[in-house]
C-alpha cells in the first residue's frame, strides 16, 4: 500500500492501481470513457450543490486507499467524498466506475468486493459496449454486500441510489 501511495502516476493518462497487493496498470481512458465520466461528474456536482451539501465534494479520478484484506488502492472515475482532502475509504460515499471491454472480470470483481468490504454506501457502474447504449447499474450497500437498485440499458433517465437526489440521462453517457 505504501509503495502505491508513493508511486508517481504515469504521465500518459494510464492509471496505476493496487489490486490484491499487486500494482495494476490500466491504459489511458478512451474518449467515450472520458465523455461518460465528465457527464456523470457534472450531474453529481450539480446535484450536490442543489442539495446544499457543502460537506460533500465530487472529484474525478482520485486515489482511494482501501485498508482491507484486499490490499487494494483504486482510482474510481468519479468519487463523492465527505471531505475535500481525505481519500480514505471511510470518507468515500459514492464510487463511480466506467468500464469498457478492456476491464477484466477479475478487476471488476475485486473492485466491487473492495468497495463493499470498505463499506462504501453507494456504487455506480457504467459499461460502454461498442455501438450500443451505455448500461448503468446503481447499487446500495446492504448487510451482505451491494444490492442492485437501478439497471438501465436502453437510454433511460434514472434516479440511482446516491447521497443526494440526482437524475442521470443514460443516453447522454455516449
Radius of gyration: 15 Å
Output mean pLDDT. Answer: 89
Runs with pLDDT <50, length 5+? none
Which CATH architecture?
Answer: Alpha-Beta Complex
Count all strands and give the number.
Answer: 12
- What count of structural domains? 1
* Proportion of helical residues: 10-25%
Terminal Cα separation, in Å? Answer: 35 Å
Biggest sheet strand order reads 3-6-7-8-9-10
Please describe the biggest sheet, giving its number of strands, its sense, and whether it closes into a barrel: 6 strands, mixed
> In terms of structural class, how would the helical and strand content be classed?
alpha+beta
What shape does the CA trace take? globular
Briefly, what CATH class?
A: Alpha Beta
Percent in strands? 25-35%
- Number of H/I helices: 3
Could you write a compact summary of the structure shown?
Helices cover 22% and strands 33% of the residues. The protein is of the alpha+beta class and 174 residues long.
Description:
- The chain is α+β, with helices and mostly antiparallel strands and 174 residues long.
- The chain has a single domain (29-173), classed as tt1808, chain A, CATH 3.90.1570.10.
- The protein is built from three helices and twelve strands; from the N terminus they run αββαβββββαβββββ.
- It has a six-stranded mixed β-sheet with strand order 3-6-7-8-9-10.
- The longest helix is centred in the N-terminal third of the chain and has 20 residues, at 31-50.
List the helices and strands and how they pair.
Blueprint: H1 2-6, E1 15-19, E2 22-26, H2 31-50, E3 57-60, E4 64-66, E5 72-74, E6 78-81, E7 92-99, H3 105-117, E8 122-127, E9 135-142, E10 145-152, E11 157-158, E12 168-169
Parallel strand pairs: 7-8
Antiparallel strand pairs: 1-2, 3-6, 4-5, 6-7, 8-9, 9-10, 11-12
Amino acid at each position: 500500500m505504501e509503495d502505491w501511495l508513493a508511486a508517481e502516476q504515469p504521465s500518459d493518462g494510464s492509471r496505476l492501481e493496487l489490486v490484491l497487493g499487486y500494482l495494476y496498470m490500466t491504459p489511458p481512458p478512451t474518449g467515450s470513457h472520458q465523455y461518460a465520466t465528465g457527464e456523470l461528474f457534472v450531474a453529481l456536482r450539480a446535484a450536490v450543490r442543489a442539495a446544499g451539501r457543502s460537506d460533500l465534494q465530487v472529484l474525478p479520478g482520485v486515489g482511494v486507499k482501501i485498508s482491507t484484506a484486499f490490499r487494494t488502492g483504486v482510482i474510481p472515475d468519479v468519487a463523492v467524498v465527505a471531505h475535500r482532502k481525505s481519500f480514505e475509504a471511510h470518507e468515500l460515499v459514492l464510487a463511480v466506475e466506467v468500464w469498457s471491454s478492456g476491464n477484466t472480470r477479475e478487476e471488476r470483481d475485486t473492485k466491487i468486493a473492495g468497495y463493499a468490504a470498505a463499506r462504501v454506501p453507494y456504487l455506480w457502474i457504467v459499461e460502454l459496449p461498442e455501438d450500443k447504449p451505455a448500461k448503468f447499474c446503481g447499487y446500495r450497500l446492504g448487510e451482505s454486500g451491494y444490492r442492485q437498485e437501478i439497471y438501465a440499458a436502453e437510454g433511460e433517465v434514472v434516479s440511482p441510489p446516491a447521497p443526494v437526489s440526482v437524475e442521470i440521462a443514460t443516453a447522454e453517457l455516449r
